[in-house]
Amino acid sequence: MIKVYKEIGQVDILAFGIHPDDVELSASGTILSHIDKGYKVGVCDLTKGELGSRGTPRTRLSEAKDASDIMGIDWRVNLEMADGFSSIDKAHILKIAEVIRLAQPKIILANALDDRHPDHPRGAQLVREAFFFSGLKMITSIQGKPHRADTLYHYIQDKQLSPELCIDITKYVDTKMAAIRAYKTQFYQGENAEDNEGATPISSKAFTDFMIAKMKVFGRAINAEYAEGYILHREIGVDNLMDLR
Ligand SMILES: [Zn+2]
Question: How many domains does the chain have?
Fold first, then answer.
């Protein structure tokens, strides 16, 4: 486990991504909004994204650190699993369960269950299983006290899935885009930026435009300018219907 940004401590929200930048692309508005409300957030990347076409694992780690600074999260770690083809097995699940036990979060955010990149659903499945097994006290081979988070939400990334929950991030959209641009080797940096590596589908201005359009579509559903969309792991409940819109 590489520490990208400070040591693991207790947090309210723990966000997982199989690649560094998944969390920024899909859930950083939610993270910024909850940090603003006083909650603590940690991020755990499962791989270093070493199969990415541009940049290197080293540049990606330093970009993840810069994005973490922009989001204001408490800590970030990288589990250094192999990018691509990582299997859903005991060793991988327990590595993730250990981070959950050390962080004791109320809420977990995870990759989309269905997406264009096949790693995303695999990351989602690994975290779903770790979400359950981290609570079993008979598992004693990993660090930390047994802990089951209250719930888990799958953020929506590339594929057009219908959200079951939308979170208003209108106030945070500019900071979110700055956190995404911190991945300098990956994403569009503006018209005057030097680009000395080959273009990829995600490095174009069109991809940034698509991201903004998607946040607007999710926002429209809840009468907000911009939102992030989530798929539920289980039913949600509230005490007060007025808390929903
Ligand atoms: Zn990804």
Answer: 1
